[in-house]
Amino acid sequence: MTTIRAARTYDAPMLAELNGELGYPANRQQIVARLAAIEATKAACVLVAEDTHGRVVGWLQVAQTAQLTGDADAEILGLVVGEAARGAGIGKQLVDAAEAWAHAKGIRRLRVRSRVERERAHRFYERAGYTCAKTQRVFSKPLD
């Protein structure tokens, strides 16, 4: 049985490890600072999946977005399940929890972006009822 709950600072070492599996290395201190910033917004949350031994085996970040081009929606900003725990339905539980979070805020659409090479993730989201709405390029510029 997996438990889905809000992330806490004491989860930081496992969240950092999972970040590495996702391809975004981070240390405990960085995760603690990032969690504090996310919690302060009240428009986003990080959910964790905890196994029966109390070990965090996955996380999902969801955030509410406001924009002039449409009604408020929510977006999954990140999702990872540890390699050893994949295929057990934990990702689906996290997505279901994100959908419930968005629904409780009165949000009527949840979106997710997935890198083009993450074909396994694309199939996961399609099985969860998501459809590809568009493709795009993401541009970034470091601000020194």
Short description:
By secondary structure, the protein is an alpha+beta fold.
Would you kindly provide a written description of the structure presented here, covering whatever features stand out?
This protein is an alpha+beta fold and 144 residues long. It has a single domain, classed as Aminopeptidase (3-Layer(aba) Sandwich), CATH 3.40.630. It has four helices and five strands. A five-stranded mixed β-sheet has the order 1-2-3-4-5, with helices on both faces. Strand 2 and strand 3 form a beta hairpin. Helix 1 crosses helix 2. It comes from Dokdonella soli. Keywords: Acyltransferase, Transferase. Pfam families: Acetyltransf_1.
